UniProtKB/TrEMBL annotation:
The NAD-dependent epimerase/dehydratase domain, residue ranges: 3-251
Protein name: Bifunctional polymyxin resistance protein ArnA
Record-linked InterPro entries: Epimerase_deHydtase (IPR001509), Lipid_A_modif_metabolic_enz (IPR050177), NAD(P)-bd_dom_sf (IPR036291)
Domain of life: Bacteria
Encoding gene (name): arnA_1
Amino acid sequence: MKILILGANGFIGSHLSETILAKTSWTVHAMDLAQDKLGHCVNQPRFHFAAGDMTREKQWVREHVEKCDVVLPLVAVATPALYVQDPLRVFELDFEANLEVVRLCADHHKRVIFPSTSEVYGMCPDPEFDEEKSHLVTGPVSKERWIYSTSKQLMDRVIYAMGKHKSLSYSLFRPFNWYGPRLDNVFNPKPGGSRVLTQFIGNILRGENINLVNGGAQQRCFTYIEDGIEALLRIIENKDNAAHNRIFNIGNPVENISIRSLAEMLVRFITTHYPKYADKARGVRLIDVEAKNYFGEGYQDVSLRVPSIQHAREQLGWEPRVNMETGLRKTLDFYLA
């Protein structure tokens, strides 16, 4: 099987490429702007990488959609601060650029596996989010934070419609706070410049206090990257057509912790297990900040985001296995050891 991964140097793309080469006989064709996260892949005979921007290298993309069996358009802006700072860029990349790729898949009868997001559920009041039944609830237009969620949701709806009316073969997967090595650059000092876990690790390494937006009371279900990639491999394999034209939440509902608890856990782990950074960790204070002062007026947050993973259990035989303590230790080993 030939797999096309656009955005292969990203967090998910690099782990997926590495795992495909280690565990399967599939061939990977890949494109991204850089390859610094793909060190274990670049010299492999089944890995073919091209450096480039998929929005400009349209002929290359078209040719590789035609030659591959499965297409994963993983290119996206997925940093919350940018949803408010540059919402038009989010829409242009997350929706418009990916729509071109999905249309190519439909035209050439190729299977597409698209990364939706847990954010499509928005402020849904359900205690667990179900792919088939939960309402997708977002805030007012003035809260630009929702442009990411609605761009992804619109892409989901277009793909679903193409499956129904144009016979597009697809699977949608919704990651719930995947984390692990290579998530972001922890040395990026810009507030909100990376996702929450790597932002906090960077704060500690730089000896900065940790800002907790709205006190850090909001809860998230953190999912270790190995678990997420295992689910993604099963979706790609599509054994007995189990993933055909389906949507899957891929998350760990057991590891549902507050952002404040995450910060406290990081400080404790680093103080206890990483003596080189222990003094910096001991000096960190947790500071409550208002969302508008941290992200800007267009930000709005969600208090709870818990996935139902019943469909992934039943159709894929998948279950998350890595607990938060083990996953955090592996992540910190990568960044600090």
